[in-house]
Amino acid sequence: MVSILERRSTNTPLGQVLRLPCKFIQGKSSAEVMVINAIAAELAISGKNILPVMVKLLKEDKYTAVLNSQILIAAQQAKLDFVYCIVVDDEMAVQLKVEAGTTLKVNLNQASEVELIAAFENIKANITVFSKIEPATLAQSIIKYRSVEQIRNLTFLTKLKCGIGKTKLPGLVDRLVY
Q1: Same domain, 129 and 171
Q2: Which spans in 29-112 are helix H?
Q3: pLDDT, one tens digit for every residue, the chain (178 residues)
Q4: Which residues are paired to 55 by β-bridges?
Q5: Domain end (from 83, 99, 115)
Q6: Which range of residues forms the domain containing residue 162?
């Protein structure tokens, strides 16, 4: 049996600009208050946003902002009823984060040692559960592992004894590919 969400999501046009009611979208922003206020002032004058809010469908008439949520918050502050959005799925949301530079994706089978070190330094700096990893040691261990065996999933990281256990693997899924 197909759920309402599955039926609705197949009818929801992915990747197209849509005008959605602000009240249908949930979101939080880490943008500075001053930035939100400046955007809200601009939106109050123009009455619409030009840069779309990227949203994921949760259920019928319920979305969550995945990128540009500061625009949603500013639109609500400016008392706009609608905001222009682009609906994305999970795969597109990951691509958006890569394209926006808010996350990076590294191929463990192809990245050089320097690229791996940089990637793990970024992960260490941005995800608190990885604050104790040693990027250079981890990169060297990956290079050594892949010289013997092709990387087919992320579970091999738990065997390297480099500070990555099973509970930490989900934090790497959007950042590492193989």
Answers
A1: yes
A2: 33-46, 69-77, 90-99
A3: 333 343 344 577 899 999 999 999 999 998 999 999 999 999 999 999 999 999 999 999 999 999 999 999 999 999 999 999 999 998 888 788 878 877 778 999 999 999 999 999 989 988 889 999 999 999 999 999 999 999 999 999 999 988 899 999 998 988 898 8
A4: 65, 87
A5: 99
A6: 106-177
Note whether 147 and 89 are same-domain residues: no
Q: Are residues 12 and 80 in the same domain?
A: yes
What CATH number is associated with residue 49?
Answer: 3.90.1530.10
Indicate if 50 and 130 belong to the same structural domain. Answer: no
The verdict on 77 and 128 lying in the same domain is no
* 76-81: Cβ within 8 A, 24+ apart: 76/22, 77/36, 77/37, 77/40, 78/40, 78/41, 78/43, 78/44, 79/44, 80/22, 80/43, 80/47, 80/48, 80/49, 81/21, 81/22, 81/23
Tell me the two tokens of residue 173. Answer: 């899924």
Do 72 and 122 belong together in one domain? no
How many domains does one find in the chain? Answer: 2
What is the rounded CA–CA span in Å between residue 30 and residue 164? 28
Q: Which tokens hold the place of 156?
A: 């091999």
Write the single-letter amino acid at 16.
Q
Nearest to 74 by CA among 107, 110, 31, 109: 31
3-class DSSP state for residue 76?
Answer: helix
